[in-house]
Every structure is written in structure tokens, then in C-alpha cells.
Task: structure prediction
Amino acid sequence: MKTLLLIIIGSALANNVVLSQFLGLCPFLGVSRKIKTAAGMGVAVIFVITVSSLVTSVIYKFVLANPAVLDGSLVYLNTIVFILIIAALVQLVELVLKKYSPALHKALGVYLPLITTNCAVLGVALNNVADYKDEKASLFIGHSVLTGFCVAVGFTFAILILAGIREKTEGSDIPAPLKGMPITLITAGLMAIAFMGFQGLI
Result:
């Protein structure tokens, strides 16, 4: 139970993928103008990271690192295989959104296919392999999926907070040199400092 709590708190808050590890900044800054689009991106990222964590951990454990398959010497293909899996999942999300939520698909724009190259998604898959590779298959897969889900929830939490702040400051009297991206980066920096407080929990 202690391990699971450490994974949940560590992945979502203390080591927040955006505010502590600085991965996935492109969609974090690009899609956080409105809460609705930020929530849509968050749901898409939760789906992609969670499912990719499951699929990549299964493929790693039973194919790439399996001693029965070429003596487990296929681990050097991790990055290529993981990118292909992530790209396929993002295409699936894009097709579903285009069919069932065209408005959200349009609002997310170029940032939706950018999930494919979002270093947070690939980073989680690679970190799972590094962190849990010595565990037996069931624990490895379980911990990988839980970590992926919690990382994605942490990303969603952070992007929703930033979107809320950006909506509130949109009509504020901000000095001209700080309008737009400068004040957004300052806000993100202050959020990162605030999230450092969660590191005392682990």
C-alpha cells in the first residue's frame, strides 16, 4: 500500500511531469488558454499515457526483454517501438474526436497530433522501464499503468490550473511587455515553485 501511495503522490504531484520534470511543455502552454480545451487535452493525454503505459510495458516484458526472444536482446528497440505505439494511440484519439467532438478537435488543433511527439508520453514509457524492469511481470505492468495514469492526471491538473489562471488574467491590467506568453511563463514558474511543496510528502 505504501508503494502505491508513493507512486500516486510522486507521479501526480511531487514529480509533476510538467512543473517538476519540464516535459510536455508544448501542449501545456499552447492549449491552456481556455479551460474547456485544456480539459479536452487532459482527457486525451490521460487516455494516451495510460494505454501506452499498459501496451509498452507488456511488449517490453514479454517481447523486447523476454529471454526466450533472442535472449532478450531487443531492448535497444525500446524507443522506436514505444514511439510507434504512441503514434497509433494518438491517431485513434484523433479519429474519435473528429467523429464525435468536431468542436474540441478543432479547438485542440495542431496540439492533438503533437501528443505523438510529446516527450512526456515517451518519457513515462521509458521511465517505467527504467524504474520497474526488475519487478516480476504482474507488478511491472501494474506499476507502469498506475504511474502512467497518475502522471497524466498530474498533467491534467496542472494544465487546468494554468488555464483557469489565464482566463482570469485575460482581462487584467498587465504591463504591455508581460502580456501573452511572458506572464504565462511567470505563472507557470510560480506554479512550479508551489508544487515543490508536495515533495515533502514523499
About this structure: The chain has a mean pLDDT of 86. The chain is about 70% helix and 0% strand. The chain has one domain: 6-201.
